[in-house]
Design a protein that fits this description.
With 160 residues, the chain is α+β, with helices and mostly antiparallel strands. It contains 4 helices and 4 strands.
Length: 160
């Protein structure tokens, strides 16, 4: 670079703690790291993913408890909610809803962890400067004595 005259060059500072701070914020309250990174559009996705997992966990847990209670009532000689179902059906229904409940819990935890990872990675990526010097051009080349056409993309990345 060549500067003429009396220009002072200011170097942008890199906040090395920004990724850790964003991850911490997202761990404390999901979506807060996205707010810190000013990526507000991701917040509904975070809450939708975590909320869907919690919703399906609750629905499947309630169904699991219904079939479990019916099975225990039947074993104790009490009338149950599902008199037309056999004991085997009640046991299989419990297994099914327990698996679904546990899967929903794991997906909720995964969404929570991905929320933290996303905040951390986004904060890291904000520290890179993508220049305006982006170019895409068609190029001709030769492979095994045959002419071919391809695309060449040039991106200039530098640290801020």
């Amino acid at each position: 670079m060549h500067f003429t005259g009396n220009l002072s060059v200011q170097k942008d500072s890199i906040n090395i703690l920004a990724p850790a701070k964003a991850a911490f914020y997202s761990a404390v309250l999901p979506g807060l790291g996205q707010i810190y990174n000013r990526q507000y559009w991701k917040i509904p996705i975070v809450y939708g993913a975590i909320g869907a997992g919690i919703y399906f966990y609750t629905v499947n847990n309630n169904e699991y408890n219904r079939f479990r209670t019916a099975y225990f009532d039947r074993q104790n000689g009490l009338p149950d909610e599902f008199p037309v179902y056999s004991d085997d059906v009640l046991i299989e229904a419990q297994k099914y809803y327990r698996r679904q409940r546990d899967t929903a819990l794991m997906l909720s935890i995964l969404a929570y962890v991905l929320n933290i990872v996303d905040a951390n990675v986004s904060a890291h990526l904000k520290q890179w400067n993508v220049s305006d010097d982006l170019s895409l051009k068609a190029v001709r080349f030769q492979i095994d004595n045959r002419q071919a056409v391809g695309l060449q993309l040039n991106i200039n990345l530098t640290r801020k």
